[in-house]
Design brief:
The protein has a single domain (about 85-345), classed as Extracellular Endonuclease, subunit A (Extracellular Endonuclease, Chain A, 3-Layer(aba) Sandwich). It has helices spanning about 5-10, 155, 175-185, 195-200, 200-210, 300-310, 315-320, 325, 340, and strands at about 25, 35, 45-50, 55-60, 70-75, 85-90, 95-100, 105-115, 165, 190, 220-225, 230, 235-240, 245, 250, 255-265, 270-285, 300, 320-325. The protein is an alpha+beta fold. InterPro entries: DNA/RNA_endonuclease_AS (IPR018524), DNA/RNA_non-sp_Endonuclease_sf (IPR044929), Endo_G_ENPP1-like_dom (IPR001604), ENPP1-3/EXOG-like_nuc-like (IPR020821), His-Me_finger_sf (IPR044925), Non-specific_endonuclease (IPR040255).
């Protein structure tokens, strides 16, 4: 089994993230092989809602042929409406995300990077330029798949003082123009400090994640906006954050996390047994000096999980992996340049909403 399939199952088997699979670790603690559950997905069932004789609500999923597969009763208190999820799972071409309706930005995004997906593979290059994405052809767009009441809007960012910060970078979605366009949906965006963060240190960290594909066959990246407490002079801990928009709609995270899992064959003789490396970095949503070491932002993966209320990796994966800074160099590559010249879309941090 290819290592990419093994790690794909290992990462995306987390129930809170993509779908509740099971990862079983076997073998030595340094080199663990994972049993891969079936990744096939059935079509979305047709749902028939009926009210029973006692007033209870019954939900009847039916198969493609209209055959009843099961009957799941809901509490009678939900007879006239179910509050529904606070997060919407969004499956895109280049990433998967959970959109937080209350905060109006992603609760998390997940992506799988390889040289081929980044258009850098010599063995599998794009057959033509038309098959790659060009960010100059993409524009920020409201995500109409999100209910209008909970949707982030272009006007929310207008003159807010914050950049529309990609959680999944456009540069990670060069596989096609359609994939790149999806990274410009506002459901993939969160307010970020522009100069000194989104356009600089955060961009260096995104580049570091992409450069991992030069040393690892598979790189999985989770991006997680965070709201972390700080201690006030009275000794109490409080979470304070700004909300932008008119009326105030979009929350401004205090921090952002990048959590990575990188895999490569443990040895030429055991190509199906991956060597797994993991690491987590938490950065404040603020100006960060270029010379700040990336390792100064290292935190345990569990710290991000606890703060975000997410389960990113199983205990088997975390216990059986090496730290990413032990298997590669955790150092950002500083490329200061004239943003207005190299990235025309950044000539103005906040552009007027589309008309």
């Amino acid at each position: 089994m290819p290592s990419s399939s093994i790690v794909h199952a290992a990462v995306f088997a987390v129930g809170a993230i993509v779908g509740g699979g099971l990862v079983t670790a076997v073998g030595a603690s340094r080199n663990r092989q994972f049993n891969v559950p079936s990744t096939s997905q059935s079509s979305t069932p047709v749902v028939d809602v009926k009210v029973g004789p006692s007033g209870e609500t019954r939900v009847t999923p039916t198969g493609a042929a209209g055959v009843v597969t099961s009957i799941t009763p809901l509490p009678a208190v939900l007879k006239y409406g179910n509050p529904g999820p606070i997060a919407d799972q969004l499956i895109r071409t280049a990433y998967v995300a959970g959109y937080d309706r209350r905060l109006r930005h992603p609760a998390w995004t997940a992506e799988h990077l390889t040289l081929a997906k980044l258009g850098k593979s010599l063995l599998d290059p794009p057959s033509s330029a038309s098959e790659t994405g060009d960010r100059s052809n993409s524009t920020f767009t409201e995500d109409e798949s999100i209910p209008a009441m909970f949707r982030a809007k272009l006007k929310d960012y207008f003159r807010s003082g914050y950049d529309r910060g990609h959680m999944v970078p456009a540069a990670d979605a060069k596989v096609s123009q359609a994939a790149m366009n999806e990274t410009f949906l506002l459901s993939n965006i969160a307010p970020q400090v522009g100069d000194g963060f989104n356009r600089h240190y955060w961009a260096y960290l995104e580049d570091w994640c992409r450069r991992l594909t030069g040393s690892f066959s598979d790189v999985y990246v989770f991006t997680v906006p965070l709201y972390l407490p700080k201690q006030d002079p009275d000794g109490k801990w409080r979470v304070t954050h700004e909300v932008i928009g008119t009326p105030p709609n979009v929350a401004v995270p205090t921090h952002f996390a990048k959590v990575v899992l990188a895999a490569r064959p443990s040895s030429p003789s055991t190509p199906t047994i991956p060597e797994i490396s993991t690491g987590a970095f938490v950065l404040p949503n603020a100006v960060i000096k270029d010379e700040t070491p990336l390792e100064s932002f290292v935190v345990p993966v569990e710290a991000v999980e606890r703060a975000a209320g997410l389960t990113l990796f199983s205990d088997e994966v975390k216990n059986g992996s090496k730290h990413i800074c032990q298997t590669t160099k955790c150092e950002v590559l500083i490329r200061r340049f004239d943003d207005a010249r190299k990235r025309p879309e950044m000539r103005r941090a906040i552009s007027a909403p589309a008309k």
